[in-house]
Write a structure and sequence with these properties.
CATH class: Alpha Beta
Structural class: alpha/beta
Length: 283
Amino acid sequence: MSIDLHIHSTHSDGTMSPAELVGLAKKKGLQAISITDHDTVSGIAEAVDSCKGDSFEVITGIEVGAKYSGLTIHILGYLFDPHNLNLLKALKTLQVARDERNGNILSRLQKIGINISDSELRIVSRIGQAGRPHIARILLKKGIVKTADEAFKRFLRKGAEAYVPRFLYGAEEVFSILREAGGIGVLAHPLQIQHAGINVSNAIEHLASMGMDGIETYYPTHSKKTRTALIRTAEECDLVLTGGSDYHGDIRPGTTLAGGRNVTVPHELLDIMKQRALRDKTK
């Protein structure tokens, strides 16, 4: 049996609604999930409401970009109060920054002859937070690129023609915001730090000193060797383990929720996470 604590819905850059994701998770036999949309908690209520009255569990979740050592890292937050005013204020700042960035990206694309309107972007993002993945979908639909990866390489990633930076909180501030809201902060897909040329173990130790609570250890692209190394580092730094599929729906062909050959995340990790959140509250 598995859980899945890293899933994206239509409230950010996923293609399935929170209720649809709950239905799919139940069909797959998962015991619990977390909807971890980017910079928003707006999909949590729908997910929770869709499984009332049964043993299936939805825990609060979010994924937030943060500044760390000249990089943008992603932090997963869990078990927080989604109505916490300080959290909502911080997220509003990030959402406004996203909107401003989107407009600047569209302006840069227009200067090189690619016209994408605000209304086109809203149609693709629907009810969710619009961002670069949605712009990549439009570029793909218009035939300007053949894949979403090509859209990022040519236009959207750092150093590309239409790239625009956006406001981010520092990692330590994100951990503090999550803790104040009663939750825990976890480093998402930690190998991205390694790909940037930074020693993962050293970075994890440093982030732990800033208030980080855990590491996303069970992840589709993590080998057994990687998982073992991350577990060892977590033990050394007194961190909890989490995991999930990072499922976005049919925008990423061949992917699916946790369980089976993709990635299996032990249910007992959730109990340890809850204990950690309670411990943090008493500090």
